[in-house]
Write a structure and sequence with these properties.
Blueprint lengths: L3 H9 L6 H12 L3 E2 L18 E5 L4 E4 L1 E4 L4 E4 L3 H6 E6 L4
Antiparallel strand pairs: 1-6, 2-3, 2-6, 4-5
Helix pairs in contact: 1-2
Length: 98
Amino acid sequence: MKTIKEAANEAFNDISLGVDYLFEEGVEFAQRWIPVEEELPEDSVCFDLRYENVLVKTKNGNVTTSCRIWNLHLSKWEWKGSGTFKDSIVFWRPIEYK
């Protein structure tokens, strides 16, 4: 996935688009929800269970934070949370900490 800076640099190369267009494209890119069928976030080792690095949106429109963790019992990566919650996640987007 491109970073906001990479997307802005790519769009800026076409200067004929204008500043307003570039700003709107940047805002749209930063606010884009990524479908889980299209791409998943990087898997995280959440030793501190309070650390969550993405926003997730469920089928019914609820938004919260989560991360992907290794399930030792099933030997696979999965979303942190209850089974019902994990199965209902349809979109995600990164949280950028600076």
